[in-house]
Structures are given as structure tokens and as C-alpha cells.
Amino acid sequence: MSTSFSHDHVGLSVTREDLDATIEWYSGKLGFAVDQRFDSHGSTFVFIVSGDVKIELLAGAATRQAPAGDVLTSMDPSRLHHFCLAVDDLDMTVSRLRDLGVELIGGPMEVAAIGQRIAFVTDNLGNIIELAEPGTWSAGRQD
Length: 143
Hints:
One of its GO terms (molecular function) is methylmalonyl-CoA epimerase activity. It is built from three helices and eight strands, in the order βαββββαβββα. The protein is an alpha/beta fold.
């Protein structure tokens, strides 16, 4: 018997001081909205959503990490490297984000092996977000 998985959410640790600014960044730059906010076990949990994408912000005893300045030099195998958001039009999304003051740390670039165009940005805390336009990788996947 095999186990079947589907994606539920990504969890990001933030400091209490950064929680509201992080909610504002994801709301203002990427259009996320707060779905739930509650306190439990000495921490604050906030679920933000956009379409079928859900991110859990966990504010407790987190400490700040240095933000990534370049996607190629950011690869540390001891942590989550990035999460990916699918977008319909990469160029339009990148243009909109640039208008909002969001800088790219990689791309846009074509990844021929998977037939996708991608770009990378960081949020207000330095978490890396990949933006991916549909291609043969996502079209051919069997989830």
C-alpha cells in the first residue's frame, strides 16, 4: 500500500517584531489575505492565503537570518532553500513586483530541462520565493 500526499502549506518562522510587517509584505506585494490568526503554546500562528496557496507564519522564538543576495550563492543544504509559486505570466508578474519595489535575485531564466521560465525574489525577511510559469514540468506531472 502506498501513501498519497498533496501539498497543504509552507511554514515560515518569523520574529514577533516582524510578524505584522511580513503579513503586510505578502498582502501588499503578492495579494495574500489573512485566513486565520490565533495564539497557542506561547506562539502566534497566522495562515495567509492566495488562491490555493497557504503559508503559515509562526511567530515565537525565531531569530533573524541573513537574507539571500543571490540565488546561486544561497544554497545551504541545512535549511529550506525556497518555495515556489506558480504564475500565469512570469514577465507580467516580475514587472508588477518591480513596480512594487521587489528586486529579483535570479532570472527570469529558462530551464530547458523542464520547459519552464522562472525567477526568484525574496520576501521582507529574506525567504526565497521562486516564481514559475507553467511549462512541461508542471503540465506533465502526475500528482
